[in-house]
Design goal:
single chain; about 130 residues; alpha+beta; Double Stranded RNA Binding Domain; 4 helices; about 40% helix; about 15% strand
Length: about 130
């Protein structure tokens, strides 16, 4: 399911990038801060719930997704990188949840585990003090 983002709902701020980079990094704001308010967006309610339920550090308590893009040396590339990362988060939230099928270990695996457990117990029992 492909969701279209409304550009008016996305907020961009140019900031200075962190890390090494010489004199240029101290003067030019090439990194981009993307802010996307999930609760105020035009996304379907179920997608909003799943986005807010993600255990992701980029989702704040207020329900705002904050993505910092500073991989490239130009604002335009960082802006498209941040949008791509936001789109990836949306795709993750729209992917249907496959229910877990409960499984049990095979009988042979259970017997093997119990045999190893008994063997380990015998080794430990032989570690006791020697009586005369």
């Amino acid at each position: 399911m492909q969701l279209l983002l409304v550009p008016a709902e996305i907020e961009f701020h140019a900031i200075r990038a962190q890390g090494s980079g010489g004199q240029n990094v101290n003067k030019v704001a090439t990194a981009m801060h993307l802010r996307f308010d999930v609760s105020a967006s035009s996304l379907p309610d179920e997608v909003k719930e799943r986005l807010l339920g993600l255990r992701d550090a980029r989702v704040s308590r207020d329900g705002v997704i904050v993505i910092k893009a500073q991989r490239f040396n130009s604002q335009d590339k960082n802006r498209t990188d941040a949008l791509a990362r936001l789109q990836a988060m949306l795709e993750l939230a729209t992917r249907p949840i496959t229910p877990r099928k409960p499984t049990r270990p095979k009988r042979s695996a259970q017997l093997k585990r119990l045999a190893k457990k008994a063997q380990r117990g015998q080794i430990k029992a032989l570690r006791g003090t020697v009586s005369d």
